[in-house]
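Page 47, continued from p. 46.
Same chain as before, 854 aa.
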Amino acid sequence: MLKATLRSFFAHKGRLVLSALAVVLSVAFVAGSLIFSDTVSRTFDRLFASTSADVTVGPKESFGESVPSGTVPTIPAQLAERVRAVDGVADVQVDAAVENVTVVDARREPVGPTTGAPTIATNWYVSDRSPVELTSGHAPRGPGQALLDADTADEKGVAIGDTLTVLAPPGSFDVRVVGIATFTTTNPGAALVFLDTPTAQRELLGDPDAATALSVTAGPGVDDATLKQRLGAELGGGYELRTAAEQAESSAAQLGGFLDVIKYVMLGFAGVAVLVGVFLIVNTFSMLIAQRTRELGLLRALGADRAQVRRSVLVEALLLGVVGSTLGLATGIGLAFGLIELMALAGMNLDATEMVIGPVTPVAAYVVGVGVTFVAAYLPAGRAAKVSPMAALADAEVAGVGRPLTVRAVVGAVVAVAGAAALTGCAVSADTSTSASLLGLGVVLTLVATVVAGPLLVRPVIRVLGGAFPALFGSVGRMSQRNALRNPRRTGATAAALMVGLALVGGLSVASASMTASFDKEIDRTLGADFMVQSANFRPFPREITERVQDVDGAGLVVRQRFVPLALSLPDGKRVESAAAAYDPGLDRVARVEYTVNGTAEALAPGHIGMDQEFAADHRVRVGDTVPVEFPGERKAELIVGALTDLGGPSTPGAQGNLVVGMATADRYVPGGQDSVLFVNAADGTGPDTLRAALNEALDPYPQVQVRDQADYKELVREQMAVLLYLVYALLGLAIVIAVLGVVNTLALSVVERTREIGLLRAIGLSRRQLRRMIRLESVVIAVFGAVLGLGLGLVWGLAVQQVLALEGMTELAIPWGTVLAVVLGSVVVGLAAALVPALRASRMNVLAAIAHE
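Result:
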């Protein structure tokens, strides 16, 4: 049996190639994502380990550090003297570093990464742990001098002697490049600007006596943990102390979010490839078994029992899985290499020669590849075991032609009802987490129901889709339609591969379009200002930008928006950490805020706070109540609830309660904060075009901010939604690739299966051109059938997703009919492309040899 299995496998290896490609793709994404993330993690672990001080003394961690308030936590620089006196301290360096500053050259062009990596301005000192070394010029020796990292200098064409402008939180200042520093470790993609320590403290922090941290070096024989303990005893509990290992771990944790995004996106592609590949493999083995009915019957007649036949088919599947996994692992290594090179284009210079292939990667690759093929082949193997020895004497097959679909109908109906119930529960639930859980359950169940019941839909749907074929193409059209109807199981399984991908596309497209429409409506409803001034990444900007805008000729009312982290101690006993938006009193003239109790004057009055009515009701808060509030730096206040809002739109990300306070309250309890948005109305007698031109001219030295009107803001939201659509289209592309493989495989095996039939058709007068057309039409109707099922299922999913979004204020439903039409037309193209090779192969058959084929 083993010899027979191996010979059978190698005899049909050409027919198994396309199924192996599905395994290769799924394994490649799994292996590539693991290799890439492991390589990046290892590289940055080494970077953080080699650059972290023995002990770092910094500001005590507090809530709200992720809120873009623009404040820079600091500690007194004089603390270095106390630290230096602690037993076991060999050296102490004052750090004054600020991330996300903006640096521009003489042409006002940004000098720094544009891909999201930070531009870091910091003080220069020589240390064994520095990630850079001075390679040309000299160190900064006073105000107006700076070093620049070599990667940024090369990319932006900056040389020693050039003048740069640094836009820091306290304000902007000019520096002359006096030296170039080259990375000695991996460049994480950031741009580095070095100043001397007094200049950094004054210009970056706005305080010559402040520091962002102290880097402490341990003396000989003193370990990090011991030194940390001694420093803690000396300094007390007002500071955050981390050893080198703890600092490296904290830095790696911050990087983890970036890595997780890439890893999960790639694993998402792997999941789609696995799911779609299962249908391809099931179909391939089912057809191979159908074509080998007499062969399997002969084995049974010679004494092979059912278990041996089943094992024979499963061994073939395992061989396919091993081959596909091996090739997939190799492809995954290539994919990881490509990602590393792509990161280099984005400024993150990873060393491809140090690629990490951990023990988990090959294990995961073979588990996925072998597991998928084994599971997919299990049902066909069971069907093969049922072949009777008498089948060797008859021209029989076990492909399921004519077998009743009763079991499928019952199972499909039960699962469909359960899925519909879950989606209905998702639509009527008032709790977001419950609704999202029911959505996930409903998606899985309805997908399973559609796959199970798909063959039941073949005959009625394809009769409609191919109904015009006989009239348009005559007898060829009629035969192509009947070929697609001949084996509903096979047609359903072939179309299912395309259906899965298009269902995902349909659902995510509806979700994306609905989110965009909801934000457009919210912008129309709430934004009343002529213009908004904000940065591209919504980061806070220096105060001098606000002052520039306020001084623009033609600018009337200017209302500032600033985010303030805070923690509320509520009457129900809960402590909620959130963020409030702070505004100037003229908010009503630049935005439309709806209130259920009182209004803007009461919400923004000094010592007051406004909150969303639902949040207030949930925590038993009423207007006039006094709520204890804690701000960063352990500043505490008692704020009076002055008004309740009914915003109705999307909530501020990461915030609860849609809290608002006045700018006076923000300045008092969170001093030094920076504005995130400026709402600007034109003065009387000034037209919008005139004001826009004046704003653009005034802000020309500040490339980090843009002037936007309502239409521009909508376009910005659409661009952000487009990122989701690009992911959708990438998933669609992958699903189509595997679906095309499935259709090609099915048609190719079908041509082999119908060799004698094709020979007879050619013998009675069917031309080669007509034969190719028949196979193409069969392919098109199968592809369109899959598209109709997928889009129908995807639209149902999209409607359910929109109900979940509605609970977060995104109430608009939008269906992208253009995308739907494009997908249907695209499925026709897919069908035509998939039929090219099988149709050509069929048309080249020798007529007499085909008639004599067994």
